[in-house]
Amino acid sequence: MKILLIQQPYLTKYRLPVFEELAKDYKTYVLASMDKSYGVDDLTSSLFTFIEAKEVSFFNKKFFWQEKLVSTFLQKKPDVLFLSANPRYISNWVLLLLSIAFGTKVVLHGQGFYDKDVGFFRKSLANLYSFLCHQYLCYTDTCKISLKGTRLFKKSVTVENSIVNNYPVCHKTINTGILYIGRLREGSNLKLLLEIMPELNRLHRAELFVVGDGADSSSLIEQYKNCPFIHFEGEIYDGKTISEISEGCCLGCYPGNAGLSVLHFMSLSLPPVIHSSLREHMGPEPSYVNHEFDGFYFEKGDKDSLFGVLHNALSNKKNLEQMQLNAFKKYKTITEPSLASRIKRVLSNQ
């Protein structure tokens, strides 16, 4: 069985099924830092071997080094190396150079330049990646398009940066709940949504369910303790529990810079409501949203715009019901076949 060495910045819960499926065809080693805020605090049994590779930062956290990466590469001598395409990880550059020396196949996984202008430096970076890797796997089509005009574009393949919800909700009755999933911290902009909830509750009996925890949680809970229509559910990693909470909702909303939460909402048949400044989001996944077909856009940071979108959506329940079906169909399209299956297809061609 061929050896596959996977590097990740952090071990995340939503990636575990991907690694386990890959491990059925490859002797798989996963190296990553571990932080329980990513949903994994213990990994006792798995099909793959996990090696904690702690992250060390320097130059004011502009660059990073992951311990044990180089030594594990030299010890295991993998047939295939799967790396996240983050140029700030110096340890990854060392592995790329070692791969040339050892004749190791390299697959990079990244976001391209979807949120950046492609100037001379980034074009040169892409061309260098093209020389060092055999294939570049893009999170979304928008990521691949951003590589046009570089040599890396010819080596790029879209595999969709997807999550699998083991408790999807494929159809729902129209309720008036709004679901938020994510950390309560700077950048989530949850306050924008909280501030308009009293009026939405008055007009539509709308309720807000907040799933997540973070630096701002205590102050927000205290501030809105007298609002019975706002429910702070806390940090929940159990997919079944989140799905049960979503049954009382008709929309998902992430008022700040979103990422995979967009796909999570769609897996629950909840049209996502996100801001329209796509290049400012945490990831490329918000590009999945087709405005007023399977989700909604509002103007970033504009409370009136967010209120208008939610008010109009809640006022047209027949249209919203169709959008819920469309959102779930989009989720199925993105996640079938699975991310691991798409990766294996690429690896088998190496």
Automatic annotation (TrEMBL):
Molecular function via GO: glycosyltransferase activity
Every Glycosyl transferase family domain range: 178-329
Entries under Gene3D superfamilies matching the protein: Glycogen Phosphorylase B (3.40.50.2000)
Keywords: Transferase
Highest taxon, organism lineage: Bacteria
Protein name stated in the entry: Glycosyltransferase family 1 protein
